[in-house]
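Need residues for this backbone.
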């Protein structure tokens, strides 16, 4: 016989003011998927471990890592697929940006405009 747990508790009460929306949505989805399978406090801890592993690369003892991997398999796979389709940010160092701007001026001087007024 499979044990069931109360499901009348509010998942959203576990959202922190400092949670990034993306992190909260993934943690919330994990809790929704497994709400009836575990006691509330244990599920909240599992969900936190899951998002820590996913977003920050945290590691835990092997039994916990295996349990979270098993429970999050589909949720993580769906999240990663959606993430692939999102626009990826490209960071450019200030020195590279300045260098590229100079190269552009030299290769096509007509494209650069200055805010300075010509002398009279």
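Answer:
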């Amino acid at each position: 016989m499979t044990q069931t747990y109360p499901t009348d508790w509010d998942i959203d009460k576990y959202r922190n003011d400092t949670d990034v929306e993306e992190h909260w949505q993934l943690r919330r989805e994990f809790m929704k998927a497994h709400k009836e399978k575990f006691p509330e406090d244990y599920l909240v801890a599992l969900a936190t471990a899951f998002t820590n592993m996913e977003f920050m690369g945290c590691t835990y003892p092997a039994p916990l890592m295996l349990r979270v991997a098993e429970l999050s398999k589909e949720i993580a796979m769906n999240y990663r697929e959606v993430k692939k389709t999102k626009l990826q940010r490209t960071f450019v160092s200030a020195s590279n940006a300045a260098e590229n701007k100079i190269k552009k001026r030299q290769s096509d001087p007509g494209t650069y405009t200055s805010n300075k007024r010509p002398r009279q």
